[in-house]
Amino acid sequence: MGLARAIDDSELVAFIHYVLVRPSHQGLGIAGSMVEMIKDIYKDYLYIEGMPEDQNNVPFYQKHGFVRMENGAAIQICNYSGKY
Prior knowledge:
It is a single chain. By secondary structure, the protein is an alpha+beta fold. The protein contains two helices and three strands, in the order E-E-H-E-H. It has a three-stranded mixed beta sheet with strand order 1-2-3, covered by helices on one side. Strand 2, helix 1 and strand 3 form a beta-alpha-beta unit. The protein is globular, with a radius of gyration of 14 Å.
């Protein structure tokens, strides 16, 4: 139904890379539950950061206590080039 990925440096910072929920199960609180579980797992880290690629997802994270970084911006290089 859902899948979340968090990456950490084992001590200081954890990044929520993505939170995905099957479209047929969206709106049931699954994504929020996964974010809260991640927050609990990393509660002793100095930072828990999200990397939403879509501006429309920012309010979801704000609802769960995240604050938009004043000068933050998502960046990416895609090396797909038909490899898969």
